[in-house]
Amino acid sequence: MGPHPMLDRRLLFVTGKGGVGKSVVTATLALSAFRRRKKVLVVELSPQGRLRELLGGPVPGSEPAEILPRLDCVRIEPRQALEEFLDGILHVRTLTQRLLRSSSFSILAAAAPGIEEFLVLSKIAALESARAGFKRRPRYDLIVVDSPATGHSIPFLSTARAVTEMMPTSSIGRMAHEVSALLADEARTAAVLVSIAEEMVVNETIELAASLRETRAVALGPLVVNAVWPARFDAGEAAWLSAADVRDPLVAVGRYHLEKRRRAEEQIARLRGELRVDPITLPFALSAELDRPHLRRLVAALDGAVAS
Amino acid sequence: MTERLDAVLDSKKIVLCVGGGGVGKTTISAAIALAAALRGRKVAVLTIDPAKRLKDALGLADLGAEPRAVPIAALGGRPGGSLTATMLDAKRTFDDLVARFAPSLDAAERILSNRLYQFVSGRLAGSQEYMALEKLYEIATANEYDLIVVDTPPTHHALDFLDAPRRMIDLLSSRAISILRSPSSILFGAGSRIAQAALDAILRALERMTGLSLLAEVADFLSSFESLLGGFRDRADAVRRILRDPSTAAVMVTSAEPLTVGEAVAFYRELEGAGLALGGVVLNRTVPPSLLERRHGRATAIAPPLLKKLREARRELDLLADRDRRMDAELRAALGGSAPVVAVPALARDVRTLEDLRSLAARLAAPPPPSNVRAFPVRESVRP
């Protein structure tokens, strides 16, 4: 398998509107990199994560655990990142826990803007720079982060920079500087935008891309359009179906497919026109459930899109 | 027979459309509102970021949060019915609220220009939800409508939405300020000297690591916000009462994706626990039944290669329709008959006219026969 412009980076943040299949794309990217013999870590940020359903393996915990021999998964939760941070200061676990249980402290933590998100990003950065083995090779070649949905992704990704600006001279500020440098480094880090070929979602994707470009917190990487309705008929067949008698149920089925495909193409064209990138399209799961065979097809589609 | 939302639309005063992202909630809210208006009620719909075509259909084409009357007279509903549409602008609502409750213009300006306010107001968990509820309160208390239909921001957890006002208050309450004045008050009850010493150590470390000015700035922000809290708190309580009122119901919108349905079921349990009544579930974008018809003998001669493709395409639709039925059954089992489940087939095209919206509305509630015309059955599919 040849080089892969997307998977040759070290850190990918997969983001997009809720419900577009961010977790599915995360799993697809991870498996594709895995098949290229890379050491991969998948990061899940919410307790509602679906990565386990998709990839199998143990329930993701706070330490990376092996799903496949070169594929690990970890769940980083903001609350827990804060707990570890306080542990580091306090060295007394029970006190940390008592503090965190106190609702007043939650208020304080929430009032210190972005501190939890920032700690999550620093944990990811620490995993990126982790070394292992005799030769001190990077522990992971690629880290794929199943990131928060659109509304929360810009604040999340720009937290490190915000912290740098707010507290330039403190030790947290210096830490933030390193993290934001990693995020802003195009050679190492990119955001993967996931969309589906529907008007509202496309609108939101275009907005997200624009604000990502504006904040410059993370380079805009490849665009993935998930769940694209397949092109089933050639031009001649399409013309015949459009003229045929729609009272015939099979003709109606054909028309339904054509119309769904037409709408999908219209939206993909909008994305291409607005963002000036060629999206990678992944096929709709026509089987009744999103299952392992479908995930394999997605990986094949991703590899195909990259090879062509 | 198919269940519909007739009873909910005729009897409730507030309908909240809830559900995750990408399920078609905004369009369904508009259709619910239109259905109720055609049944003779005075309806307001509060919508969040509608698609351009839906906006056109509702006559909201130009931006702005002013309420617009939707021209439904030509649709032949019961007399007395009307529909008004308003777009929700969360950011503006938040700023308006600060301006309203601040003791002076100067104080309002101080808050609005505080960079922490700008940072926090955009990212506070639940601020969008809170603002949707705030706008709802404003319209509900004006008492101009029989029914208000609210399109809500996508949430995975019912409580995120319902408790938005409370969490907002907690976050900004004077409690936080008192902590900043006297940090050891965090460990109320614990009271031991060791705990206090440890806490002081933490706060000193936090200050060292974050820089002193940040804490001072937070304190300044919170104390300027303190002046607003009385107003905020009263509002939050009032909104809370409105949401739990028996005349309020939630309608949950979900797609037939198994994962999404699973989330919807969890959502329903949370709603129940939170004391909000569920008025119905809309299982959106199912496979249109007309595509699943079988007929013997072909009306059209289809070339064999195309025939093969079409049969394969139909097999796939059959699979999807099977999934729809399983999800429908799963939802019904979870609800145990407490609320109707309405399957709404995918439309042949996006809603772009009021007429399109009306055909969607007819799936949600039986359209009343126009009072001056004899009722006749509507034939849904033409058979040769």
Walkthrough of the structure:
The complex is a heterodimer of chains A (308) and B (384). Chain A has helices at residues 22-35, 51-55, 78-90, 93-101, 103-111, 115-128, 150-166, 171-184, 199-215, 235-243, 249-275, 292-307, and strands at 11-16, 40-44, 65-68, 71-75, 131-132, 137-138, 142-146, 189-196, 220-228, 280-283. By secondary structure, chain A is α/β, with parallel strands linked by helices. In chain A, the strands form two sheets. Chain A has an eight-stranded mixed β-sheet, sandwiched between helices. A two-stranded antiparallel sheet of chain A has the order 5-6. In chain A, strand 5 (131-132) and strand 6 form a beta hairpin. In chain A, helix 6 crosses helix 8. Chain B starts with 5 loop residues before the first helix and ends in a 20-residue tail after the last helix. Chain B has helices spanning 6-11, 25-38, 52-58, 90-101, 105-113, 115-123, 127-142, 158-162, 164-172, 174-181, 193-210, 212-244, 258-274, 304-335, 354-364, and strands at residues 14-18, 42-47, 68-70, 82-87, 147-151, 248-254, 277-286, 341-345. By secondary structure, chain B is α/β, with parallel strands linked by helices. Chains A and B meet through helix 3, helix 4, helix 5, helix 7 and helix 8 of A and helix 6, helix 10, helix 11, helix 12 and helix 13 of B.
- What is the mean predicted local confidence, pLDDT of chain A? 84
List segments of chain A where confidence is low: pLDDT < 50 over at least 5 consecutive residues.
none
| Strand runs of chain A, count | 10
Q: Could you give the order of the helices and strands of chain A?
A: EHEHEEHHHHEEEHHEHEHHEH
With strands numbered from the N-terminus, the spatial order across the biggest sheet of chain A is: 3-4-2-7-1-8-9-10
Task: Considering residues with a beta carbon less than 8 A from a beta carbon on another chain, report the largest interface and each chain's count.
Answer: A-B, 69 and 83 residues
The overall pLDDT of chain B, averaged over residues, is 78
